[in-house]
Amino acid sequence: MTKPKAQYFILITVSVLGLLLPHSDRFIIIFAFLFIPIALTLLALLIYFFAITLGYRKSNRKKFVNGRTGLLAILLLVVMPFVSVFILDTYSKYISNQLIYELEAYKKQKGEYPTDIQQLGIADTFGRVKYIYYPHNRNYALSYKSRGTVTTKYENHDKHWRHYGWND
Q: How far apart, in whole angstroms, are the C-alpha atoms of residue 115 and residue 70?
């Protein structure tokens, strides 16, 4: 039987990996190739867990606990990247909207958009997110790498956010 400390270590490690790895280009490519084996493993663990649960006896406690730990680990590995991406997207959109507000305030005050985001007196990097500012005539575009291989871009002339993947 897996000791409780080992179970917690496994679950915490998988949770942390699930939170951090979706922001790595290499991991996303590897995960894409491993998606089918991971899904099959999850399905096998679900069947195993339900089979043990239906025939649960005191003698099967070790298998039950190990099956539950494996099932939770795989579920966390699948769910935590979505949680991480949601949190980072929410944070990035919040910072982006602040930058857009600052750019519009600058234009109201000076009559034109700045040539460089540094003219706003704020940094172009917040945490791990680096914003790239493209001034163009009377418009501008603001972009950042939102997750893994996805770039998010805002263009002020149509006031719309667009997401571009690795093949766009």
A: 53
Domains of the chain, by residue range, sit at: 4-82, 88-164
pLDDT tens column, 12-37: 777 777 777 666 666 666 666 777 77
SS3 at position 68: helix
Distances (CA, A) of 66 to 3, 15, 52: 9, 17, 10
Give the separation between CA 46 and CA 52, rounded to whole angstroms.
10
Report residue 61 as tokens.
């406690």
Q: Residue 159, by phi and psi: left (phi above 0), alpha (psi -120 to 50) or beta?
A: left
- So what's the pLDDT on residue 81? 78
Block residue for tokens 């005539």? 137
User: Which tokens is 69 given?
Assistant: 């730990």
Q: How far apart are CA 79 and CA 44, in angstroms?
A: 18
Distance CA 118, CA 13 (A): 39
Strands 129-136 and 139-147 come out as antiparallel
pTM (whole model) above 0.85: no
What would the pLDDT profile of 45-69 be if each residue is shown by its tens digit? Answer: 777 777 766 665 556 666 666 667 7
The CB density around residue 25, as the number of other CB atoms within 10 Å, is: 12
